[in-house]
Amino acid sequence: MGMNTPTLQTERLILRPFARQDIPALLAIYGDKETNTYLPWFPIQSLEQARDLFIQRYENAYRQPQGYRYAICLKEDNVPIGYVHVSMEEGHDFGYALRKEFWHRGIVSEAGRAVIEQLKQDGFAYITATHDVRNPRSGGVMKRLGMQYCYSYEEQWQPKDICVTFRMYQMNLDGEQARVYKGYWEQAAVRFIEDQV
Description:
The chain has 197 residues and is an alpha+beta fold. It is built from 5 helices and 9 strands, in the order ββααβββαβαββαβ. It has a 5-stranded antiparallel β-sheet with strand order 1-2-3-4-5, with helices on both faces. A 4-stranded antiparallel β-sheet has the order 6-8-7-9, covered by helices on one side. The longest helix has 15 residues, at 107-121.
């Protein structure tokens, strides 16, 4: 399991695949109301839901030939406190979340840098990341990782079914600095470039 997600270590962190014994930790991450405010899904409420989520979102992904679905763990106890995911779809969306007790310590930036380094080594051309305009803190992480703002767009977000304005950031890993992934732009009825981001 998880052979397609090589374990990474940083100064403070272990980044590794999620395993069955992490189901209680998944409940703490995906059940945290504040952590999930700006994510598309509703917080989960039971170990049963956490187990279903583990199977769908992790176990199945780890069967694919390539995947990046990392648990962010502190070295002292190796218990997941958040995650970093990179989508294998065309946009290579870079997503992350962290339990709120661990915010403001640079943990996601530290984890993100390690995952981006791995993506570079593995030959990825670029990654994108999006954040809700009401959540500029997440944009701060993208900037600290060296991502550049490209454009903004509206999307009806599911399953919450709310209209959200997103900012899209991109990082080109192969030196093609002019490349901009246009997938979200092309799908959006409302899209624009903001002056000051």
